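Colleagues,

For the teaching module next term, I've prepared a clean inverse folding example: a structure given as tokens, and then the sequence designed for it. I'd like students to try predicting residues themselves before seeing the answer, so please don't circulate the second half yet.
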């Protein structure tokens, strides 16, 4: 393998830490330089909200993997990171002659759905949050720089503080099979996504710039996801009783919590995005699937959820 230097943003996050591990496993000839707001070994000090701090960060890099983003919050903070920061970083990569760019976006740019097996931009994006709107806008700068743009939907695995914790709260508030539990969801385990990103960054195959869905090719039924998590002791057993959508929404409103009705809809209704193409083009196996991977991450989830529940109750 030709030695490669990878400039990595978001290296300390849920996905970034998995990508770092995947890059290390990919080969000894890969050097990772992590963008960071703090000093550290093999780190480049910079801040996406301060474009001046990014000047020169891509010099000597062969690959840029841009994972950092703001995934919640109001419009202006999201814009500062997801649009202005992305634009500045892509400009630096172009000026430095970086040969490959992988940029992480989200399938949440399509909005509420339901979406059943759609291809990339088969429907027009209709983001419903500031984070999704600004991440969609940031894609344009990445594409202009020649990036491979990835849109995963739900990402599971050790370190996930969003998907399974959200399910845990929602199951407590709406204890039933939501709309029958038949919704299909696009999921990917974080380690499989990391393998894909590492291959796109440093593999021999070069994938053309464009937007690609990045879930496991086989969607997961919501009921099967609930049952698998319950089987591993992560969630309580979910009653088999199927509630129609309106009853679910009425119950959610009756028992308030951190998760909004919009977020419930994103989790509970069909959101399935065709993703076979990127795995084929990258020549990397998609892995056994997120349900099978949950056996490995279940102890982490159980410990994390026990801690968050204890904190919420004051125990």
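(Answer key — instructors only)
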């Amino acid at each position: 393998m030709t030695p490669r230097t990878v400039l990595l943003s978001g290296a300390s996050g849920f996905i970034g830490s998995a990508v770092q591990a995947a890059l290390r496993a990919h080969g000894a000839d890969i050097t990772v330089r992590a963008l960071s707001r703090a000093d550290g070994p093999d780190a480049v000090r910079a801040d996406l909200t301060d474009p001046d701090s990014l000047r020169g960060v891509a010099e000597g890099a062969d690959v840029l993997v841009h994972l950092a983003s703001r995934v919640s919050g109001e419009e202006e903070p999201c814009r500062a990171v997801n649009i202005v920061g992305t634009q500045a970083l892509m400009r630096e990569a172009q000026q430095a002659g970086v040969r490959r760019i992988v940029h992480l976006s989200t399938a949440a740019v399509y909005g509420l759905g339901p979406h059943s097996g759609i291809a990339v931009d088969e429907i027009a994006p209709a983001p419903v949050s500031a984070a999704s709107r600004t991440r969609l806008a940031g894609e344009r700068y990445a594409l202009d720089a020649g990036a491979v743009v990835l849109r995963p939907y739900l990402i599971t695995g050790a370190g996930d503080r969003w998907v399974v914790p959200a399910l845990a709260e929602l199951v407590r508030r709406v204890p039933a099979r939501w709309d029958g539990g038949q919704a299909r969801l696009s999921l990917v385990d974080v380690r499989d996504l990391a393998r894909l990103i590492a291959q796109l960054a440093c593999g021999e195959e070069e994938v053309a710039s464009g937007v690609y869905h990045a879930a496991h090719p086989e969607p997961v039924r919501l009921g099967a996801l609930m049952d698998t998590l319950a089987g591993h002791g992560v969630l309580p057993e979910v009653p088999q009783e199927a509630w129609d959508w309106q009853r679910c929404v009425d119950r959610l409103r009756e028992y308030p919590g951190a998760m909004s009705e919009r977020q419930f809809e994103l989790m509970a209704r069909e959101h399935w995005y065709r993703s076979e193409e990127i795995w084929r083009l990258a020549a990397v196996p998609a892995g056994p699937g997120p349900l099978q991977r949950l056996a490995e991450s279940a102890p982490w989830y159980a410990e994390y959820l026990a801690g968050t529940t204890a904190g919420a109750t004051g125990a």
